[in-house]
């Protein structure tokens, strides 16, 4: 106990004398950074999931062609999940002598569980947002139905045998399915009225959906319970599965935030290591004295370990508080972009923050701290006696283990973790050795250099082990910053590419061959650019190499979905722009009987180039040979196809045409006359969905940018701190040189050279490391083409030189100002 | 009788007038040195003695231009240190002054040879290495040229420091407790060497010590008490 009190006393004294400032600051950045990012990411993710859940009108949806066993709903109650129900079916409406096929949706009292409905009045004004569907006896309808059925608000509408009063025009429905081919105008009614319609009979095409909402754990448990009970026609939808383009955007943003967290940790870890190194070097004398006075090595370790434990706890707690505040700040900054309802910050992130703080502190501070136990007691007499530096394996091994553990926790992906850590370590090892060798060789050059260069480089070569250590430390910091920047740029570019500003926001389908040319001319006249017109023939894939296709699909797979319905088949002499052949021969448009298959479906069904596929189109049979497999960007809002045939293969089958195009808000007026002229054509407006998607991406982008700036700021401040932690020796030498008559100019230039070369070496090393890690990430993990990042080669060395020189120069400026004796006396 | 001030000045290499040093502390201003007048002639050897805290090292640092006085002035070789900026003082030190410290103050990363070459390199002397080798040989370390301070004993380190101090043939040598960190026997050897080199080079020696036998080897001794010469 007395020892512990001594530890506290020493800690207090160090804190008061400023010995701990740098160390505490580095730890504060690490814990504050990781806590704020992890709180922010966690909260943002849950907010985004909330918003994304709007697309499903619930957190989890169970869908199928028949009502589910009531026991299942009772089970959901057991998990304290709230629920809602929708039933969707097509029905032909007949009013005022007009006929129109409509998609009826009967919704329960609690629908929608997530998101809101928007409705307007007859003049399509006064949009009202509501969290409930129509009351019993009422119907809300798509505005297209008003002219189509010659209806006005408050008229009656008969669905099956039930008469409903039309009260509102529905303008937004959160979970509207983008199933373009079954697209027909909506009639929404209350579930209680469903039985009275008599429209739902055995054998009718009905889509039942049960939405659930509740805590993440309860949802996960319920899902796990449901899964084995499902029959093949039933599906569970959640945001990550059902909206893949959104799900992947979220997942990648989550990963990025996780990576940023690791980056900040790594940067701060480097600072902690360097600050502890300085701390222990400044405690050599005190330790030697304690040893002289009879402290054993074990007691020395316990003494300092207790100090660091207390320090770690105090600073980590402060860091957590700081992280909590910073996270609030981030959300305030993003206030305008984020949805109104925010998820609450999770308490667990605080616990993680505290834990992370202690782990980082020990991972990075232990090796330099352990060095203290090796301080020889004789040092009280001979000040030049220093303990051996800690083993490189211990220093880098422990740090790598801590970082690997963190990356693993954030990515939950051993492959990714391995790629980053493995490549990073390999590069640092190889280039660290190379730098060491270069430093050793340049020693021989010294006598031939001018005075300034000789003194500048000598500063670096004085202790080449320390020199390499410093270069590596700065290089790691710069690498981490570069990775954060590059991955973020890649992510944002990807999103931008996915959804360019003028991405098509309208699809036109069912264009008859006879009106194709006129339709094209009309679009051109209105200066509306289209994304090509594709013929569509509806057909079903039935056999692969003579084997029935049902035998080859696994349950719940994409293949199963594709074989259970009719596919849109098309023919073309060339592929849509974003399609790329991944396997097989080039497209030979002049030979009928060929087909190109989308890669993922092909993988799912085991289709290879050369296979024979059999289709049914109506009552007829069709055979084609697979020539190649294509990758397809499904989220470009352009027509895309699983199957593209060579021209002539589908000759004789009835086809319609489809295209997509971009309309500005002002151009929307061209739609009504166009639709009137071509009554068969259906135009699908997807701008709502696009807008929603775009908003989410904008929010994620803003969040990611903020996190990046934070990581960069942390990087530079730590770089400054780290340079400072190496200055003691330089300041001492500067003072001694001045005692011997060196002029300030000489010292200044020598320092500039020393820091400049140090920064340059660190910058170059960081460039190599960042490039190698990015290469490994892109080719091994993300499977995308790798290109050399020219900007890295320009900016990183420059940033290294500028950062290190500025910080170093700033730090040693006092040496040249103060009287040398004061420095020597210290 | 040679007593006029001008005569003194002509042969004086160091002339300190009303030299004072005060530092602010939490309990008011602490006067470390108060109004010290001191003239040191060219080639003279002088010992500054006194209790710990009497201001010996402060006086030395002011005389050598390593620190600036709160009041009064110091002239070295006729040049007023107050009128020189830090660079001017550095240049003056490089030209005229050598140092030996109690704690050796060798650069740990450099070899013995490189440490000794430093002052010559700073003044741009061409055959720095040759002179440094010669002097290291003179102090008996010809076999230790490539050793770093860590590989040398305390006595050897102080001999390297002596070589570094004398290698630029300074007009004045300041020695601050040069044997303070050495055992008696080693200390005696170092001191013998110091006086021999001093003799050879006709250097003015200003020696701070509390060892009276050492002080007795100097031509003159001044005693400091509470910041004043007594």
TrEMBL record, chain A:
**Residue stretches spanning the membrane:** 256-275, 308-330, 350-370, 391-410, 416-439, 467-487, 706-725, 746-770, 790-812
Answer whether the UniProt record assigns the keyword Membrane to this protein. yes
Compartments, record wording: Cell membrane
Is Transmembrane helix found in the keyword set?
yes
Domain (ABC3 transporter permease C-terminal): residue spans on this chain? 260-372, 706-817
Which superkingdom?
Bacteria
Keywords, sorted A to Z = Cell membrane, Membrane, Transmembrane, Transmembrane helix
Give the record's membrane topology. Answer: Multi-pass membrane protein
Q: What is this protein called?
A: ABC transporter permease
Species this protein is from? Methylomonas aurea
Automatic annotation (TrEMBL), chain B:
Q: What is this protein called?
A: ABC transporter ATP-binding protein
| Domain ABC transporter intervals | 14-230
Q: Which Gene3D superfamilies does the entry link to?
A: P-loop containing nucleotide triphosphate hydrolases
- Pfam families hit by this protein: ABC_tran
**GO MF:** ATP binding
UniProt KW keywords = ATP-binding, Nucleotide-binding, Transport
Q: Which domain of life is it from?
A: Bacteria
Q: Which family does it belong to?
A: Belongs to the ABC transporter superfamily.
- UniProt cross-references to CDD domains, sorted A to Z: ABC_MJ0796_LolCDE_FtsE
Q: SUPFAM superfamilies under this entry?
A: P-loop containing nucleoside triphosphate hydrolases
Q: Which organism is it from?
A: Methylomonas aurea
């Amino acid at each position: 106990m007395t020892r512990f009190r001594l530890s506290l006393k020493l800690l207090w004294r160090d804190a008061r004398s400023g010995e701990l400032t740098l160390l505490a600051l580095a730890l504060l950045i690490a814990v504050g950074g990781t806590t704020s990012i992890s709180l922010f990411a966690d909260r943002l993710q849950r907010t985004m999931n909330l918003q994304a859940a709007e697309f499903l009108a619930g957190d989890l949806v169970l869908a199928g062609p028949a009502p589910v066993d009531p026991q299942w709903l009772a089970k959901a109650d057991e998990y304290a999940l709230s629920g809602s129900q929708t039933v969707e079916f097509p029905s032909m409406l007949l009013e005022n002598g007009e006929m129109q096929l409509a998609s009826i949706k009967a919704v329960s009292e609690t629908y929608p569980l997530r998101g809101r409905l928007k409705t307007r009045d007859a003049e399509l004004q006064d949009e009202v947002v509501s969290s409930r569907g129509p009351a019993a006896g009422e119907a809300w309808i798509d505005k297209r139905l008003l002219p189509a059925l010659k209806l006005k608000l408050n008229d009656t509408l008969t669905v099956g045998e039930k008469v409903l009063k039309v009260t509102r025009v529905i303008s937004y429905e959160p979970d509207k399915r983008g199933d373009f081919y079954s697209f027909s105008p909506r009639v929404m009614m209350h579930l209680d009225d469903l039985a009275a319609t008599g429209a739902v009979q055995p054998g009718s095409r009905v889509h039942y959906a049960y939405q659930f909402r509740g805590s993440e754990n309860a949802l996960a448990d319920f899902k796990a319970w449901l899964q084995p009970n499902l029959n093949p026609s039933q599906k569970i939808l959640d945001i990550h599965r059902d909206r893949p383009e959104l799900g992947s955007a979220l997942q990648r943003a989550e990963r990025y935030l996780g990576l940023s967290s690791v980056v900040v940790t790594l940067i701060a870890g480097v600072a902690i290591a360097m600050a502890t190194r300085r701390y222990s070097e400044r405690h050599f004398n005190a330790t030697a004295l304690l040893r002289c006075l009879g402290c054993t090595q074990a007691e020395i370790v316990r003494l300092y370990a207790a100090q660091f434990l207390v320090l770690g706890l105090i600073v980590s707690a402060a860091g957590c508080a700081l992280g909590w505040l910073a996270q609030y700040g981030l959300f305030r900054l993003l206030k305008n972009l984020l949805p109104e309802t925010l998820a609450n910050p999770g308490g667990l992130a605080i616990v993680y923050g505290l834990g992370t703080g202690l782990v980082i502190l020990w991972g990075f501070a232990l090796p330099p701290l352990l060095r203290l136990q090796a301080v020889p007691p004789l040092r009280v007499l001979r000040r030049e006696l220093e303990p051996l530096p800690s083993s490189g394996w211990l220093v880098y091994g422990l740090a790598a283990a801590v970082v690997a553990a963190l990356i693993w926790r954030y990515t939950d992906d051993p492959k990714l973790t391995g790629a980053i850590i493995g490549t990073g370590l390999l590069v640092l090892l190889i280039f660290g050795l190379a730098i060491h060798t270069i430093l050793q060789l340049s020693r021989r050059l010294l006598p031939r250099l001018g005075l300034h260069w000789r003194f500048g480089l000598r500063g670096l070569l004085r202790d080449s082990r320390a020199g390499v250590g410093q270069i590596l430390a700065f290089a790691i910091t710069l690498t981490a910053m570069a990775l954060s920047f590059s991955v973020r740029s890649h992510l944002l570019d990807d999103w931008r590419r996915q959804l360019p500003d003028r991405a098509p926001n309208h699809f036109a389908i069912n264009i008859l061959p006879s009106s194709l040319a006129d339709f094209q001319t009309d679009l051109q006249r209105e200066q509306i650019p289209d994304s090509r017109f594709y013929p569509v023939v509806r057909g079903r894939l039935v056999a692969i190499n003579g084997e029935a296709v049902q035998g080859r699909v696994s349950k719940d797979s994409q293949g199963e979905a594709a074989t259970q319905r009719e596919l849109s088949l098309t023919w073309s002499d060339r592929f849509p722009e974003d399609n790329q052949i991944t396997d097989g021969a080039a497209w030979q448009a002049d030979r009928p009987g060929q087909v190109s298959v989308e890669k993922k479906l092909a993988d799912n069904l085991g289709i290879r180039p050369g296979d024979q596929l059999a289709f049914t189109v109506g009552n007829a049979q069709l055979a084609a040979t697979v020539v190649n497999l294509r990758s397809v960007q499904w989220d470009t809002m352009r027509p895309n196809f699983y199957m593209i045939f060579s021209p002539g293969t589908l000759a004789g089958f009835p086809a319609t045409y489809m295209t997509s195009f971009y309309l500005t808000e002002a151009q929307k007026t061209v739609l009504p006359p166009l639709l009137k002229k071509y009554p068969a054509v259906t135009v699908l407006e997807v701008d709502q969905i696009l807008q929603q998607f775009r908003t989410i991406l904008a929010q994620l982008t803003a969040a990611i940018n903020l996190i990046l700036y934070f990581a960069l700021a942390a990087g530079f401040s730590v770089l400054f701190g780290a340079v400072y932690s190496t200055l003691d020796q330089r300041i001492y030498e500067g003072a001694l040189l001045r005692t011997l008559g060196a002029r300030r100019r000489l010292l200044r230039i020598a320092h500039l050279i020393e820091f400049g070369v140090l920064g340059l070496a660190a910058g170059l090393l960081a460039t190599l490391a960042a490039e190698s890690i990015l290469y490994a990430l892109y080719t091994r993990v993300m499977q995308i083409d790798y290109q050399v990042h020219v900007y890295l080669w320009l900016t990183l060395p420059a940033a290294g030189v500028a950062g290190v020189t500025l910080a170093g120069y700033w730090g040693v400026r006092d040496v040249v100002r103060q009287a040398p004796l004061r420095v020597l006396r210290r | 009788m040679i007593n006029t001030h001008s005569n003194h000045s002509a042969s004086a290499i160091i002339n300190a007038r009303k030299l004072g040093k005060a530092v602010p502390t939490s309990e008011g201003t602490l006067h470390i040195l108060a109004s010290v007048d001191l003239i040191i002639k060219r080639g003279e050897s002088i010992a500054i003695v006194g209790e710990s805290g009497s201001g010996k090292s402060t006086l030395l640092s002011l005389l050598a231009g390593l620190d600036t006085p709160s009041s009064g002035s110091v002239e070295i070789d006729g040049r007023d240190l107050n009128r020189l900026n830090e660079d001017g003082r550095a240049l003056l030190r490089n030209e005229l002054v050598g140092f030996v410290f109690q704690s050796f103050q060798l650069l740990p990363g450099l070899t013995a040879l490189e440490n000794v070459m430093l002052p010559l390199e700073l003044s741009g002397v061409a055959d720095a290495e040759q002179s440094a080798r010669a002097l290291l040989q003179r102090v008996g370390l010809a076999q230790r040229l490539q050793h770093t301070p860590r590989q040398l004993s305390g006595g050897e380190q102080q001999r390297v420091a002596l070589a570094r101090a004398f290698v630029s043939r300074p007009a004045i040598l300041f020695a601050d407790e040069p044997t303070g960190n050495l055992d008696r026997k080693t200390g005696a050897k170092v001191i013998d060497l110091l006086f021999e080199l001093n003799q050879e080079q006709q250097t003015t020696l200003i020696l701070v010590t509390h060892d009276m036998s050492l002080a007795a080897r100097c031509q003159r001794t001044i005693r400091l008490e509470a910041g004043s010469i007594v």
